[in-house]
Design brief:
With about 350 residues, the chain is of the alpha/beta class. The radius of gyration is 30 Å and the shape is elongated. It has helices at about 30-45, 55-60, 85-90, 95-105, 120-125, 140-150, 165-175, 200-210, 225-230, 260-275, 325-330, and strands at about 5, 10, 20-25, 50-55, 110-115, 130-135, 155-160, 180-185, 215-220, 235-240, 295-300, 315. It has an 8-stranded parallel beta sheet.
Length: about 350
C-alpha cells in the first residue's frame, strides 16, 4: 500500500528519501536573532523542514510552583523550576512566527509547528502552516487531535508513551475528523534518550498496524538511531537543533549541532539509497569487477601432451579463464597444443 503525499513541495513516502526536520523548540534562548540564525544553519545543513512549538505558559499549565507543578526529578534537565517557569523560558513568542516562517521559506525549508491548544491551531492557520505536528505529551488530547485534523492538512503525531489502544483512539479520531495524510513517529519521551530505549523495530509494525507513513522523533545523541530507523522504513526524522550545545538552553543538551545535522541528512539518505531491492548476481556497477574474480590460468609454458598439475594450473585473478570449480576436473588432463604461461584456461586446448 502506498501512502505517499506532499508536505509543501516535498514528497513523503516509501519511494522517497527521508524528510529531515530540524526542531527549533526553545533553543532560541529568547533571542529572535538567534532563532533566525538557527533557521539559516538548518538550511545550510541541508534539513528539509523547520519546526517550531506554538504555545504560551498559560496554554500549557497553571502558574503554580508546588506539588506536581514543580519539577523535582533529579533525572531531568529541568529540575528546580516549575512547569510554568519552564514554558515561559522555552516558548517561542507568537509574534516571531511569521518572521521565522518567512525566513525558512526563503531558504527552501518547509516551516510548520506543533500547536498545543486550539488557539495555537487558529493562529497557525493564519500563517498557512502546511502541516501540523502533535507532540507525544499531547497524543491523547483527543479534542486537540480533532481540531488539527479538521484543517485537512497532513498530521505528524509522535507516539511517545502511548499504548496501542491509545494510538488506535488517536488515529481513529484524526481520521474521523478529516485527516487523510498521517505520519506516526516512534518516539521515546526521555531527554536525552538512550539508544537502547529507542526500539526502532516498532517502526514497520506501526506502518502495518495503522496503514500510514512512519518515522522517528529522535532524542538520542548522534545520528545512529535515525539511520537505523530509515533502514526499517522511517521516512520522516525529527531532531532538535541548535547552533552549539555549549550555548545552553532548555533543549540544548540533546540537540544536534550544524555539522551533525548535515551528517544526519547525508547518512539517512545514504541509508535509504542502500535499501534497494532484493537482488542477487552482479549489479550494473559490479559488472566490471567480475573480470577480477579468480579463474583458471596456465602458470608455465606447456607443449602438446603436457599434463596439467598444481605447478602449472593455478586459480588466480583475473577472471577470464574457466571458473575455479573445474580445477580438480582438469588436474591430470593433457593439453593439445602449445600454451603460453598466462593463458586463461578454456576447453579448446584440453585433451
Amino acid at each position: 500500500m502506498s501512502n505517499s503525499f506532499k508536505i509543501g513541495n516535498r514528497w513523503i513516502g516509501r519511494d522517497y528519501p527521508p524528510f529531515i526536520i530540524a526542531e527549533l523548540s526553545g533553543n532560541h534562548n529568547q533571542s529572535l536573532e538567534r532563532a533566525l540564525a538557527i533557521v539559516e544553519a538548518a538550511a545550510q545543513a541541508g534539513a528539509h523542514g523547520l519546526k517550531l512549538q506554538t504555545y504560551t505558559a498559560d496554554t500549557m499549565t497553571l502558574d503554580l510552583a508546588e506539588g506536581e507543578f514543580f519539577i523535582d526529578d533529579p533525572n531531568t534537565l529541568w529540575k528546580g523550576c516549575s512547569l510554568y517557569e519552564l514554558y515561559q523560558q522555552a516558548y517561542t513568542p507568537w509574534e516571531w512566527h511569521e518572521l521565522i516562517f518567512a525566513r525558512a521559506g526563503e531558504l527552501g525549508l518547509i516551516p510548520f509547528s506543533t500547536p498545543f491548544d486550539e488557539t495555537a491551531v487558529d493562529f497557525l492557520e493564519t500563517l498557512d502552516a502546511p502541516c501540523y505536528k502533535i507532540a507525544s505529551f499531547e497524543n491523547t488530547d483527543i479534542p486537540l487531535i480533532r481540531k488539527v485534523a479538521a484543517t485537512g492538512k497532513p498530521m505528524i503525531i509522535s507516539t511517545g508513551m502511548a499504548t496501542v489502544a491509545e494510538l488506535d483512539e488517536t488515529v481513529r479520531a484524526a481520521r474521523e475528523a478529516g485527516c487523510q495524510d498521517l505520519i506516526l513517529l516512534k518516539c521515546t519521551s526521555t531527554y536525552p534518550a538512550p539508544p537502547e530505549s529507542s526500539n526502532v523495530r516498532t517502526i514497520p509494525h506501526l506502518r502495518e498496524l495503522f496503514g500510514c507513513e512512519v518515522g522517528l522523533s529522535d532524542h538520542t545523541m548522534g545520528v545512529g538511531a535515525a539511520v537505523a530507523a530509515v533502514t526499517l522504513g522511517a521516512r520522516v526524522i525529527e531532531k532538535h537543533f541548535t547552533l552549539r550545545r555549549a550555548d545552553g538552553g532548555v533543549d540544548s543538551a540533546f540537540s544536534l549541532e550544524p555539522e551533525e545535522m548535515a551528517a544526519l541528512v547525508t547518512e539517512t539518505e545514504r541509508g535509504w539509497q542502500a535499501l534497494g531491492e532484493v537482488r542477487y548476481g552482479p549489479t550494473e556497477t559490479e559488472m566490471a569487477s567480475t573480470g577480477f574474480r579468480r579463474s583458471l590460468y596456465i602458470a608455465a609454458d606447456l607443449q602438446p601432451g603436457d599434463v596439467l598439475t598444481p605447478a602449472n594450473l593455478r586459480r588466480i585473478r583475473p577472471g577470464h579463464g574457466l571458473p575455479p570449480k573445474y580445477y580438480d576436473t582438469l588436474l591430470g588432463k593433457k593439453v593439445t597444443k602449445v600454451v603460453s604461461k598466462g593463458t586463461p584456461v578454456d576447453w579448446s586446448f584440453i585433451g
